[in-house]
Write a structure and sequence with these properties.
Blueprint lengths: L2 H7 L7 H24 L3 H6 L12 H11 L60 H7 L2 E14 L20 E13 L9 E11 L8 E13 L4 E8 L24 H5 L9 E9 L4 E9 L6 H7 L13 E11 L8 E10 L17 E16 L3 E14 L7 E12 L9 E11 L1 H9 L3 E2 L2 E14 L2 E11 L5 E2 L5 E12 L1
């Protein structure tokens, strides 16, 4: 189901004793889960021991690192190039199997820094450096990336209670189309002696045939300043940010071009996390204990506690400092991450907690005044289970992962979220940069919201289960096409009718990067 189905209905709720206890129990569970994962994981000691055999790049400039990597390593356009897209400046890139042309090395320091997702580099774009435009801009310190995602969703089941668009209840009930378009530019400040310094400015435009899925808007998605300190152990990023690309790792496989209609993270968004259509003022600090262990703290202005639709409607440009009843969201994420290398499978473990003092409505006592102190937690892990090309393309292979998220049921419409995923990168030699994913999810609704709906005589369901399969083909530099099929048991939010109890959504999407 679409992530915005939850946020469009979301209400704020007052502080309650049960919610308070739930928060601290949830946080304790999250911290204990991460500790158990890190302590029990069999590869942690081996991975850390292998660091002594890897080159130390600290103290070198990003351009020097890039030149060495281009000379020493092989990089596959659209596949293993992504393995170093989100690494911090001193992290080691993974191997790949086709040479990266020298003309692209000079663009590495101009790519967006501080992200956890793998936005394609200039080599994996339609334009590349045709006409020398990218080179001319790079000479004056400017980099850019633009992309468009266009998606069609339709429920294939007969008797699916088709309706007018105005009365549509979920994405795909009627044929649904939406387009998301981005343009982002960077300016290199390291030329002025600022370590890894960068200014990032971006805009986002979206349009939906089903407005609750969006709604339509055009505005900023990022206005940010980035730099590093303490020999790159500390990263700072401040401005109007989209934390959905910087925390939690919700994109399956890490490539947004290959994960355009995957599962959503309702717990994070209803808890106030900002994202591309809803950026807010944010300060992110990331401390790297070594090349694998890190801790990230984020202090951001919360999105609207009434949900995504309410936030975007009130602040379509994204430039407003805040929206009604929105306060401050504090997030903290700890994790362990190593990139794929020959004989070293990729691993990413992370856990986070969040506190939000926005004024939410209490679902258990909806007539009381709005209160504050919402919270959330999440634990997630991804592990490369098999390396198909150990020596020439270590990131190719099969991966598995899971996510568990929670929030107080008295303040949040979604109280629990569970996800299990299995995915493959470059499974076929003839398609070395394609991705396949199989994802199962269970979204559990607040018992207070469910009971309130049942008391009004509605048919209700206490959770929504879904399983989806997606194949993404990398058709050429910067061009991705995805086909997906998702079965959803109860695609609507809490209430339903017999005709809309199930959905089998067919999805088709293209992602084109420039």
């Amino acid at each position: 189901m679409n992530s915005n189905d939850v946020h469009n209905d979301q209400k704020k709720r007052p502080y309650s004793t049960s919610g308070h206890a739930f928060r601290f129990r949830s946080i304790a569970k999250a911290e204990l889960a991460l500790a158990c994962i890190l302590a029990a994981h069999p590869i942690a000691g081996t991975a850390l021991a292998q660091t002594t055999n890897m080159p130390n790049q600290k103290g070198e400039t990003p351009s020097e690192i890039t030149k060495k990597n281009v000379q020493k390593k092989l990089v596959q356009v659209g596949a293993d190039t992504g393995d170093k897209r989100t690494a911090r400046p001193a992290a080691r890139p993974a191997r790949a199997n086709t040479p990266q042309p020298d003309q692209f090395a000079k663009f590495e320091n101009l790519r967006i820094k501080g992200l956890e997702v793998n936005l394609p580099g200039p080599a994996d774009t339609v334009i590349q450096d045709k006409g020398g435009i990218r080179s001319a801009l790079a000479e004056i310190g400017i980099g850019y990336i633009a992309w468009t995602q266009n998606t069609y969703v339709n429920n294939l089941l007969p008797n699916a209670a088709k309706s007018t668009i105005a009365n549509q209840l979920y994405s795909g009930q009627n044929p649904t189309f939406y387009t998301l378009n981005y343009m982002m530019m960077t300016y290199d400040l390291s030329r002025y002696g600022i370590p890894d310094g960068q200014i990032i400015v971006g805009t986002e435009q979206q349009s939906w045939t089903w407005q609750p899925g969006g709604p339509d808007r055009w505005g900023i998605n990022t206005i940010a300043y980035y730099q590093t300190f303490l020999d790159r152990k500390l990263e700072l990023k401040v401005g109007y940010l989209m934390n959905s690309y910087e925390l939690a790792g919700t994109v399956v496989g890490g490539n947004p071009g290959a994960n355009v209609f995957g599962p959503s993270s309702n717990v994070l968004y209803q808890g106030g996390m900002n994202f591309a259509p809803a950026p807010t003022p944010t300060l992110n600090l990331t401390y790297h204990f070594d090349d694998r262990l890190y801790n990230k703290v984020s202090l951001q202005r919360s999105t609207s506690p009434d949900g995504v639709f309410a936030h975007i409607t009130a602040n379509p440009t994204g430039l407003n400092w805040s929206t009604a009843n929105a306060g401050i969201l504090l997030l903290d994420e700890s994790g362990y991450r190593n990139r794929a290398a020959p004989g070293l499978p990729e691993t990413w473990l992370r856990a986070g907690v969040g506190f939000n003092n926005s004024h939410y409505t209490n679902l258990a006592h909806p007539t009381q005044p709005r209160a504050d102190e919402n919270s959330l937690y999440y634990v997630a892990a991804d592990r490369q289970l098999w390396q198909s090309h150990v020596h020439d393309a270590a990131s190719r292979g099969i991966y598995g992962g899971f996510s568990v998220m929670g929030a107080p049921p008295d303040l949040n419409k979604v109280s629990q979220y569970y996800e299990v995923r299995l995915y493959a990168k470059g499974l076929f030699d003839s398609r070395p940069s394609d991705q396949i994913s199989l994802v199962a999810t269970d979204t559990v609704w607040s018992r207070f919201a469910v009971d309130a709906a049942a008391a009004k005589g509605n048919l209700v369901h206490r959770d929504a289960k879904a399983i989806s399969g997606t194949y993404t083909a990398h058709l050429g530099p910067g061009i991705y096409a995805s086909l997906g099929l998702t079965y959803i048991d109860h695609p609507t939010s809490i209430t339903y009718t017999p005709q809309i109890g199930h959905a089998l959504n067919f999805s088709a999407s293209t992602s084109i990067f420039f």
